[in-house]
Design a protein that fits this description.
The chain is an alpha/beta fold. It is built from four helices and five strands.
């Protein structure tokens, strides 16, 4: 369970109406970050990748979260999400990565990264709610 500070921050910031990304990628072990962020009912989809099928099953009931069951963690999130979006026919130019430490990189910092994807390689299909 995450401490109260992030939950309070999310509650205060839920009023944002203009998205800064087309999709949000949330690699997760427990699903808590994706669940907390989905409480805001954001206007963009979250792609929550996890190696735990039980976590993916639990995330299926979170608003706007598309859980993806992984066999193993990808080496490069940018390449992985670009391939995943292309495979599923989703046009996205900007992807926000919300990540923290992982099994592969346990000393990593928590971070939010805005990734610019190659729009020419993406199909012209919009992901709709």
């Amino acid at each position: 369970m995450m401490p109260d500070a992030p939950k309070n921050f999310v509650r205060q910031k839920c009023g944002r109406t203009r998205p800064i990304s087309d999709v949000v990628l949330v690699p997760t072990r427990s699903g808590s970050a994706a669940q907390i962020l989905s409480r805001c009912k954001p206007p963009v989809w979250f792609v929550a990748s996890s190696r735990d099928p039980a976590v993916c099953q639990g995330l299926a009931f979170s608003y706007g979260v598309h859980p993806v069951d992984l066999v193993e963690e990808p080496d490069d999130c940018r390449q992985w999400i670009a391939r995943w979006l292309s495979k599923h026919g989703v046009a996205a130019k900007r992807v926000m990565l919300v990540a923290g430490p992982s099994a592969r990189n346990p000393k990593a910092n928590h971070r939010i990264e805005l990734m610019q994807l190659d729009a020419e390689a993406m199909p012209l299909v919009q992901l709709e709610r």
